[in-house]
Amino acid sequence: MAQFSHPEFGGMAQWTAGGMSMVGDMFNAGTKAKLDGVLHDLADALRRGEVEMDEARAATSGLAQVSELGWPAEFGRPATAGSQNDMRYAFFPTARRLVIEDGTKRTVYDTGEHIISGVSQQQSSDRTLTFQSQLGVVDIGDLPILR
């Protein structure tokens, strides 16, 4: 997951390996395709071990910075994380946990067999989060709340 601001990508941009990408100039399909291509190639190189995370950060001059600040350390490293306004989420596949923070309220879910690979968030008054896994759409109401 990468979140950054850079003029080459229209300002603020987000990208997740699960398929979500946003660029500052939201109707510019060329810029979005450029972002998808660059970060997909970088993620593939990281997975294949061709570059280390520190090398990837240096190569992109700080474009793809991943922040794990504030997430429960006992869950390990999140595979995907994101935020918008005062709501943020992170998925921890090793611990099988999904953490959602809405303002100051933090909820931890047991994801069971779900491997979260994508997320969408509506900006409506209820600010709905929808997650995608290998089993299809994940209904948050069906996941057990741990705390």
Placed side by side, the strands forming the largest sheet appear as 4-5-6-7
Can you summarize the main beta sheet? 4 strands, antiparallel
The first-to-last residue Cα distance is 25 Å
Query: How many beta-strand elements?
Result: 10
Summed over residues and divided by their number, the pLDDT gives a mean of 77
- Low-confidence parts, pLDDT < 50 over ≥5 residues? 61-68
Give the fraction of residues assigned to helices.
Answer: 10-25%
Q: How much is the radius of gyration in Å?
A: 16 Å
Number of helices: 2
Tally of individual domains? 2
The geometry reads as globular
Q: Quickly give the structural class.
A: alpha+beta
The quaternary structure here is single chain
> Strand-residue fraction?
25-35%
Q: H/E order of the elements?
A: EEEHHEEEEEEE
Would you write up a description of this structure?
This protein is α+β, with helices and mostly antiparallel strands. The protein folds into 2 domains: 2-59, no CATH class; 73-142. Helix content is 18%, strand content 34%. The chain is built from 2 helices and 10 strands, in the order E-E-E-H-H-E-E-E-E-E-E-E. It has helices at residues 29-47, 53-59; strands at 2-6, 11-15, 21-23, 80-84, 87-92, 97-102, 105-110, 116-121, 129-133, 136-138. Strands 4-5-6-7 form a 4-stranded antiparallel beta sheet, with no helix packed on it. The longest helix is centred in the N-terminal third of the chain and has 19 residues, at 29-47. It is globular, with a radius of gyration of 16 Å. The model is unreliable at 61-68 (pLDDT under 50).
